[in-house]
């Protein structure tokens, strides 16, 4: 084989490989545009249920959250600090599993505090609903999370 023929073969294979990579990227972009982001598993608890509240209850709950920021910002900041404390405890020598357990328990208490606040706000909104709004809300809660999406976007009927 001559040097010119080897160079042409190498160049041809490089061009074919480049074309394949470009087609794969284009396919991914088109697929993402057509299908949207992949579904994420829904978070649990009251926050997930609050998303299905009919209007104006969802907006009222958001307004209450903003107005009562002082009631939930503390537990939320503690959760962030506990994450850092857990990282420190995992690296500490000597390792102390009781310290880790204490940090995890404090995190659970902070999460419980947030969940309790969310449950109170959600219950307040539900208490304000007439029967037809409660029925609409019940239907929304029964739908699968996958039924609520169309091309990666939430259905806000």
Task: Provide structural commentary.
- The protein has 157 residues and is mostly helical.
- It folds into 2 domains: 1-35; 45-154, Four Helix Bundle (Hemerythrin (Met), subunit A), CATH 1.20.120.
- Helix content is 75%, strand content 3%.
- The chain has helices at residues 3-35, 45-50, 57-67, 69-91, 97-128, 131-142, and strands spanning 149-150, 153-154.
- The chain has a two-stranded antiparallel sheet.
- Helix 3 (57-67) packs across helix 5.
- The radius of gyration is 26 Å and the shape is flat.
N-to-C span: 69 Å
Number of strands: 2
Describe the global form. Answer: flat
- Counting copies of identical and different chains, the oligomeric state is single chain
Give the % helix. Answer: over 70%
CATH topology of the largest domain: Four Helix Bundle (Hemerythrin (Met), subunit A)
Give the H and E element order: HHHHHHEE
Across the major sheet, the strand order is: 1-2
Low-confidence stretches: 37-43, 150-157
**Sheet having the most strands:** 2 strands, antiparallel
Based on secondary structure, the structural category is mainly alpha
CATH architecture designation of the largest domain: Up-down Bundle
Give the averaged pLDDT, no decimals.
76
Q: Could you tell me the radius of gyration in angstroms?
A: 26 Å
User: How many independent structural domains?
Assistant: 2
Query: How much of the sequence is in beta strands?
Result: under 5%
- Number of helical regions: 6
